[in-house]
Design brief:
alpha/beta, 5-stranded parallel β-sheet
């Protein structure tokens, strides 16, 4: 593994790399490219769904570059995001006392079909695939996120002023509070600008760990799905990772 010598991440270098050892997929996104996908997602939510700051979005997605686009897009237009990484049987909502339906719901096809899942109702409902290309089939009442998001431009819609005190999640946690938690976690990991963090997606599903903390520190991310633990050190060396999570 490379010595800890962080430098500024160049604009042409990947900010987020997604690797899936089960399918062989590799997607490298620079900050500009990830920003473009997030802008499309913001446009889908604000202009396509008509959502406004404070509206509630449920995200039942694994660590993935598309999940990053959905989350950043939602937060950039002031939405309140609930995130549940794992299937939890018997829990009809993502937080106690929540009013249903959510204004938008994002879920993978696998979780929609999982009998252990209790996917909440949503006014706007999107399936987000974790493989390349559009989905082969979409059940009635749902839309495939991939073609729908491409209907919107790579430029973020005009945004209002987001205040640090505005709620970023339905439990009332604000943008400022999430930012402080992300910076503190990055400090615990000793992440610094220019670091490259390798993340085992199966072990760290919360976006605080694989997305918010590295971005808060100015680090890039190598997000590895279906990673054999025995291959982790070799993968870290190949990706020139300076930190492993």
């Amino acid at each position: 593994m490379a010595d800890h010598a962080p430098v500024a991440v160049a604009t042409h270098e990947p900010l987020l790399s997604y690797l899936d050892d089960a399918t062989g997929e590799r997607t490298d996104l620079t900050a500009q490219q990830l920003g473009a996908w997030a802008a499309r997602s913001a446009g889908l939510l604000r202009d396509g769904c008509g959502l406004r700051p404070g509206d509630r979005v449920a995200v039942l997605l694994p660590p993935h570059w598309r999940t990053a686009a959905v989350l950043i897009g939602a937060w950039s237009v002031g939405l309140s995001v609930s995130f549940r990484p794992r299937a939890l049987a018997g829990l009809p909502v993502l937080e106690p006392g929540a009013d249903l339906p959510y204004d938008a719901v994002f879920v993978t096809p696998e979780r929609l079909d999982d009998w252990l899942e209790d996917v909440p109702e949503g006014t706007h409902r999107y399936l987000v695939g974790t493989g390349p290309g559009p989905l082969s089939s979409v059940p009635p009442g749902w839309l495939d996120w991939s073609p729908e998001v491409l209907r919107h431009p790579e430029i973020a819609p005009d945004l209002g002023v987001l205040r640090p005190s505005d709620p970023a999640s339905p439990d009332g946690t604000s943008y400022g509070e999430w930012g402080a938690v992300a910076r503190e976690y990055a400090k615990q990991l000793d992440l610094r600008a220019g670091d490259r963090l390798l993340v085992d997606a199966a072990e760290h599903e919360q976006p605080l760990k694989w997305l918010l903390a590295p971005l808060a520190a100015g680090a890039s991310v190598v997000l590895c799905a279906n990673l054999d633990p025995a291959d982790r050190d070799a993968r870290a060396a190949a990706e020139q990772a300076t930190r492993v999570l």
